[in-house]
Amino acid sequence: MKLLTDLSVTARRHRPAAAPALLLDFARQAYRAAGVPVPLSSVLSFSRASAAVRGTAGGLLETAGPDVLRLDHAFGSGAFRGALFESAATNLLSHSSDFTQSAWSGYAAKPAFTGGQDAPDGSLTAMTWNCSATTGGAGGQRGGILVVGGSVSGVATASVWLRASAPLGMRFGHSDGTSKAITVTPEWQRFSYTDVLPNTQNRIFMLYEDVNADTDVFIWGAQVELGGSASSYISTGASPAARSADQPGLTGISGTFDVTVTYDDDSQDKLAGETVSEGWWPALSRPWVKKLVVG
Fold first, then answer.
1. Quick check: 168 pLDDT over 80?
2. Same domain (yes/no): 104, 239
3. Which pLDDT value is given to residue 40?
4. pTM for the complete prediction?
5. Residues 204 and 268 in one domain
6. How many structural domains is the chain composed of?
7. How far is CA 58 from CA 72, 75, 93, 124, 241, in A?
């Protein structure tokens, strides 16, 4: 006697998830429309009327020309931060890296600066002074620089790049009353300070030390701008200078979509039911975008 068994197994056919309508992965420089690789220029319009500074994968700073999208990297490590989208800003200081100029006053004694030093952008435009070479002020031995600018009004941020031949305590900010203690090390760092201007001294930038030691201070890229954080560096000469806004916009896509924006710190904005049309771009919580997914 022969027994026959017919066993059939069926399963639901696997259907892969539909690709998003648009994927801009700036970290991988991979761009897809409906799952198909496309050139970035076919899905993103971009303009900026001025040059602007970005970080390179080599860990230095460099200047990108007008209308060049900035893929920004962290200074020093070269770690990728994201595509950088900033609003317009103005550096209110003149001679942002030439502290010998009369626009820079002494605090309390103006240091004797030496130029031609290595700067964060690889140029020889940084300056240095030796702390033992300045005298004056209430501390007896004190040197530094300041800028008076009583016409500046509102929340403002001062910033500057510093390093020293040995760890050094300094004071940095807008004025005596609106400043903070900082520790400068042998590695370049960008320090920033935010407060409301004007202050009682009508100062907008102040930096000093009073150690009277044989320590060299290296300085580059001073900036004061309106707003609550330091934006990318804006080099100036004899007068203040501006950086134009980055102006991105999506192209070739329209409709209602869910949108996810991933930032440099891996935080996300999730926007539901956004109406996307030609030239649309989301309001950003941070200026560095790693990834944008539409749909």
1. yes
2. yes
3. 98
4. 0.91
5. no
6. 2
7. 11, 8, 28, 17, 27
Tell whether 114 and 224 lie within a shared domain: yes
The shares of helix, strand and coil residues in the chain, as percent rounded to the nearest 5, are 0, 45, 55
Domain with 114, as residue range(s), is: 89-243
On whether both 113 and 204 belong to a single domain, the answer is yes
Are 232 and 84 in contact, with CB atoms under 8 Å apart?
Answer: yes
Place of tokens 């130029």: 115
Q: Which residue blocks in 68-115 are alpha helix, DSSP H?
A: none
Q: Is the dihedral of CA 129, 159, 89, 93 positive or negative?
A: negative
Q: Which two tokens stand for residue 21?
A: 């309508």
* Percent of the chain clearing pLDDT 90 (strictly above): 87
Token pair for residue 246? 């980055």
Query: In terms of Cα–Cα distance, which of 246, 231, 243 is closest to 47?
Result: 246
Phi, psi values for residue 254, rounded to 5° = -155, 155
Statement to judge: residues 236 and 115 lie in one domain: yes
CA atoms of 276 and 251, how far apart (whole Å): 10
